[in-house]
Write a sequence for this structure.
């Protein structure tokens, strides 16, 4: 690991320009797959998923992951994905068998508490949402465990130790603390997530170690937390003093005429503020990624990422541009089909909607996921790579089922 005095924590506005710093003992990571093969696989997956009323999606995800995993090359060898569609399907059925009775029980509870007053209904809803959020966090950890256990490099598998239940309830408590502190506990929540997940990650008989701190994440996120609070205070202050009128009893009410006149200015100003806020949030996530990479090691091996927010933003802009052009084309063709007004128009419309259905997946996968994974791999360096080559395989208990809760709750579809 690098000494922390080298400025490993990215500061606000850091460019993170990618430079060639490879040296003996270092390894680069690359990603390369056939766009034609990816396109044909996406079309096939969507068609068979539609034909089987969604059942094929488990096998579709498996085939897509296998293609993506094999596209990642580390030290001259590619990753292997060993999961199966059957495992995902069985895991999904198991999760439904648990989640369905839980949902029914809370629904019945809501009807019973309805007789006790509205306060009990609110409590029941809060409890249900909290439990569902806990299930979601449980699903995320099981998802990571399953994917790692089905990932291998040179025949040696990754895996994840730790308890999904412990992870879930601690994340729920820290999330409630985030709400209570208006977001100031968010870096502590992220620090726990990274610590628990990365420190429980294994490759063969070796372990990954994460040495990041809550303080380091606060350096990234404090402007973001303070920023949304400033925006909220400004908007509330303006609306209270400019758009509200007070009656004889001091009860506030919206001055509809004044608000109607000022609405364009209010929404324009709010839109600009939220745009820059979310833009900064986007860059903060990139800085967090570089931070966690630099503070993670595997024995003597350590990692560096030169990923820049600008490169990721360019991918997003291209994806939205292609999506916008596709939407315009969709609208023009749809209008032409409706204008035809013939019986053939119905079949043409059904055919066209299928391609639009496939197009969304193609847009997300070919113009976001694949380019993003490529730029992440290209900017990732592994130092003292020989540690991985020396690692022997370890025998551990692998999950017998797939990402059941993740599928049932629609967590991490890819």
């Amino acid at each position: 690991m690098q000494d922390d005095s080298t400025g490993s924590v990215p500061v606000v506005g850091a460019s993170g320009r990618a430079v060639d710093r490879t040296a003996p003992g270092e390894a680069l990571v690359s990603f390369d797959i056939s766009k034609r093969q990816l396109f044909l696989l996406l079309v096939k997956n969507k068609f068979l998923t539609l034909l089987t009323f969604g059942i094929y999606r488990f096998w579709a995800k498996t085939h897509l992951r296998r293609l993506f995993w094999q596209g990642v090359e580390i030290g001259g060898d590619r990753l292997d994905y060993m999961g199966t569609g059957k495992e995902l399907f069985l895991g999904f059925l198991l999760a439904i068998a648990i989640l369905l009775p839980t949902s029914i029980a809370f629904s019945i509870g809501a009807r019973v508490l309805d007789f006790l007053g509205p306060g009990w209904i609110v409590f029941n809803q809060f409890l249900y949402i909290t439990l569902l959020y806990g299930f979601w966090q449980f699903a995320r950890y099981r998802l990571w465990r399953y994917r790692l256990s089905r990932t291998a490099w040179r025949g040696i598998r990754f895996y994840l130790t730790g308890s999904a239940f412990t992870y879930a309830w601690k994340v729920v408590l820290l999330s409630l603390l985030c709400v209570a502190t208006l977001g100031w506990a968010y870096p502590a929540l992220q620090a726990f997530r990274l610590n628990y997940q990365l420190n429980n990650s294994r490759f063969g008989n070796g372990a990954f170690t994460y040495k990041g701190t809550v303080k380091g994440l606060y350096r990234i996120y404090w402007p973001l937390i303070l920023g949304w609070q400033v925006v909220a205070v400004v908007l509330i202050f303006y609306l209270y003093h400019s758009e509200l009128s007070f009656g004889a009893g001091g009860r506030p009410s919206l001055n509809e005429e004044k608000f109607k006149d000022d609405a364009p200015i209010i929404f324009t100003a709010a839109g600009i503020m939220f745009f820059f806020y979310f833009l900064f949030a986007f860059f903060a996530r990139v800085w967090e990624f570089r931070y966690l990479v630099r503070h993670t090691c595997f024995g003597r091996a350590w990692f560096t990422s030169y990923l820049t927010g600008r490169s990721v933003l360019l991918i997003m802009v291209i994806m939205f541009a292609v999506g916008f052009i596709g939407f315009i084309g969709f609208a023009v063709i749809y209008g032409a089909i409706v204008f035809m007004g013939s019986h053939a128009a119905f079949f043409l419309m059904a055919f066209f909607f299928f391609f639009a259905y496939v197009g969304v997946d193609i847009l997300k996968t070919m113009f976001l996921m694949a380019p993003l994974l490529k730029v992440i791999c290209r900017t990732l360096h592994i130092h003292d790579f020989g540690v991985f080559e020396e690692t022997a395989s370890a025998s551990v208990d692998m999950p017998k089922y797939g990402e059941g809760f993740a599928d049932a709750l629609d967590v991490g579809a890819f």
User: Anything to note?
Assistant: The longest helix spans residues 256-294. The CA atoms of residues 145 and 160 lie 5 Å apart. The chain has a mean pLDDT of 83.
